[in-house]
Design brief:
40% of the residues lie in helices and 20% in strands. With 373 residues, the protein is of the alpha+beta class. A hairpin with a 2-residue loop joins strand 7 and strand 8. The chain is elongated, with a radius of gyration of 44 Å. It starts with 17 loop residues before the first helix and ends with a helix. The structure holds phenylalanine (PHE).
């Protein structure tokens, strides 16, 4: 800004000359028209109406004019500035409405598109049936007990009365965990059944004892229609004064009724497990044909293969040697136990012929059998 100077001729102040103001206006209007979005317009506003814009610098010069010249120069600068400001406002409104229109198009939601393209999963039937099995026992007053899947051989075999080198150990197709140096036996296995949880429960919980233990088990089996190297078992154990096989039978019947329906008969046949004595395998009447398929000329039953019975579990009275190994007096206490495969229960319950269906993770399987009330 120049200092006031009374002999100053306004036409000689370059910034205030009509030509200069016209140029400032033309430059501003061109920049405003060329702005294609709000950011560009903002830049144009700073360049042509901001503090350092030609029109602003011109306005600052007015103060330096002789008073007589100020009004005329002020009018010219004011008019030019008004044109620029108005052009800015117009373009601003235009660009804003353009942006709003674009947002409406770009962010439009087509409410008529199908909504269920992503399949919702479902809880796996091995989980839901396992929980249902456990619930049956929790309702009868049993507690849930859990144990590690990587288990000491002692819990998995020795404490359960499998003598070292006894052939029964071989029937469990054990996966052994290697020792750190890979030479000696580590004494650690992936548990082959849930029975080691019985030992842990008897060693740590007060008597009388009623526990149910669901969990994952491992064996070296190759995957085929009826075997899987990883599967789930659920095991029930009761230790109390005066328990007999009749109590075991009662628990099994309650379980079968809750899982497969009321009124199905059960059958125990002698079997062998080192940790129970006597031992039995448990079958139930086929819940589909109820034995009808065994009659001559009757249509065959896929579920029991027309046997009329389905084997579902192993059971027995806890071997007194196992009680002793856990510090329990076998003259005062007795116990019963039974264990079964959860995948097998799922297969029986839903008529699934191939165990691989339960582990392949196909959502159609989970959705069909895992969604239940
Ligand atoms: N643990 C046995 C198995 O896996 C099943 C079983 C459990 C048998 C409890 C008797 C009592 O073969």
């Amino acid at each position: 800004m120049s200092a006031p100077n009374k002999s100053y001729d306004p036409v000689e102040v370059a910034a205030l000359s009509p030509g200069e103001l016209e140029r400032a206006q033309a430059g501003a209007l061109a920049a405003i028209a060329a702005a294609t979005d709000l950011d560009e317009l903002k830049a144009a506003r700073i360049a042509h109406a901001g503090d350092r814009a030609p029109i602003s610098l011109a306005r600052a010069e007015i103060g330096a004019l002789p008073p007589a010249a100020r009004a005329e120069a002020g009018k010219r600068v004011g008019a030019t500035r008004a044109v620029i400001i108005q052009a800015l406002a117009l373009r601003q409104a235009e660009l804003e409405s353009e942006r709003d229109r674009r947002v409406l198009v770009d962010e439009a939601v087509d409410v008529s598109l199908p909504w269920d393209r992503t399949l919702a999963g479902a809880r796996h039937p091995v989980t839901t049936v396992g929980e249902r099995l456990a619930d049956v026992f929790v309702d009868m007053g049993y507690e849930i007990a859990e144990g590690p899947e990587v288990e000491a051989e002692w819990y998995n075999f020795d404490a359960l009365n499998f003598p070292p080198d006894h052939p029964a150990r071989d029937s469990y197709d054990t996966i052994f965990v290697a020792s750190p140096d890979g030479r000696e036996r580590s004494g650690v296995v992936l548990r082959t059944h849930t029975s080691p949880v019985q030992i842990r429960a008897m060693l740590t919980r007060p008597l009388p004892l009623y526990v149910v233990s669901p969990g994952k088990c491992y064996r070296t089996d190759t995957l085929d229609a009826t075997h899987s190297p990883v599967f789930h078992q659920i095991e029930c154990l009761a230790v109390d004064e005066g328990l007999t096989m009749a109590d075991l039978r009662g628990a099994i019947n309650a379980f079968v009724a809750a899982m497969f329906g009321e009124g199905l008969r059960t059958r125990l046949r002698p079997d062998y497990f080192p940790f129970t004595e006597p031992s039995a395998d448990v079958s139930m009447e086929c819940h589909v044909c109820r034995g009808a398929s065994t009659k001559p000329g009757a249509p065959p039953c896929r579920v029991c293969r027309s046997q009329g019975w389905i084997e579902i579990a192993g059971c027995g009275m806890v071997n007194p040697r196992v009680l002793v190994a856990c510090g329990i007096d076998p003259d005062r206490y007795s116990g019963f136990a039974f264990g079964l495969g959860i995948e097998r229960s799922v297969m029986i319950r839903h008529g699934v012929a191939d165990i691989r269906e339960t582990i392949e993770g196909d959502m159609r399987f989970s959705r069909a059998f895992g969604t239940e009330a």
